[in-house]
Amino acid sequence: MADETPETPAVPPAPAAKAEPVTPLTPKERKVAARNRRGKRRGATPEERAEARALKAVARRRRREQEREKSKAQRAAAPPVEPLVAAPKGTGKPKVRQGIVTSDKGEKTITVRIDDARRHRKYQKIVRSTQNLHAHDEKNDAGTGDLVRVVECRPMSATKRWRLEEVLERAK
Fold this sequence. Notes:
single chain; alpha+beta; CATH 2.40.50.140; 2 domains; 2 helices; 26% helix; 27% strand
């Protein structure tokens, strides 16, 4: 049989060299070894750290200078801003509130209870609050239990800062 190839003799495995016993690394030593494999440089000399800081400072100065130049160009391209002028006195909208008269005993003064119910932003629970205001009632028109609308005005006394605008609903 001519197509038969001679078999190669099996090479016996070389005897294993006796390895020295490996001491296990502590967790801290493992972390240091892993850090070194990743290429992080820890424990650089003070001179190396100072050099790295100086390079960062140069880059920081360069970047800040570029930002200043950019903002100067933007300010130059922007239209001029008009100076702020104080608003004339008496402008703005006065606050308007609606509530129930709880007392009309004072001369030209009523006490109005304003009830407010709103949902708490975080807990979503309905939170109710009340507020008592003293309002000026020039004609002594409102009575206890009336639903009224009051408007913010200049201080008229130590506690009166509201004025009766209209009686919306009379008490029965």
